[in-house]
Amino acid sequence: MRLDKYLKVSRLIKRRTLAKEVSDQGRVKINGQTAKAGTNVNVDDELELKLGNRIIVVKVTGLSEQANKENAKTMFEVVKEEKIQDSI
What is the number of alpha carbons within 13 Å of residue 26 lying toward its C-beta? Predict the structure, then answer.
């Protein structure tokens, strides 16, 4: 499954266009490698997302072409979530 579609279906990011922009800006890594929107996501991959002032690391636990709110939560497991401190 494409990265941008996975981010949208799993509800990590609300819209697919936004998911595409975020990944094309290099703010998403798959298993430590910077990923583009078309990169394939597989079960057991580790995604690192830099969203605003937060870094979220999730492990992919499932793939589905469509998911409702409850099923979307089963598609990933949060490994780590941290806030980035602003440097002044």
Answer: 0
